[in-house]
Amino acid sequence: MLINVLEGKKLPVYGDGSNVRDWLFVEDHCSAINAVHESGCIGETYNIGGENEVVNLDLVKEMCRQIDQKISSYKELIRRYPNSAPAKGYDSELLIQFVADRPGHDYRYAIDPSKIAVELGFRPRMNFKKGLSITLDWYLNNEAWWRNVIIGKYQDWINQHYGKYLA
Question: How many Å apart are CA 131 and CA 164, to the nearest integer?
């Protein structure tokens, strides 16, 4: 979605956008994995969740709002992303396009993370909007990485280093 926003492309949203997902900031996820590694019981299962269910359309709109603000505030970003909606003077939200949902697509993805909270003391720390902002900044500051991913160089690297294990 972010790359589409930066390139001024449509933002496909399944159905009416009301599907729900539980979002977890990557550093919180790493902290949870570390808690399981350090204190979890061998053979046990610990569900890691963000306790932060967000409707897909709300997520896309928040991403659009934040990226519009970031691009509009920095001339360098307007120069780097001239095809983006904010560089052209309009809101990225106008790029949202509703598309047919996949047959059998789950309406809601959610888990109960109470076991990891009670037994290992893990609870997510990052606020959703702040975590999204940090994530967007990471992508803006690491353009070379994501450009290599979308043109396939990343897959070439994976095959070079791990191909013998994937066969």
Answer: 36
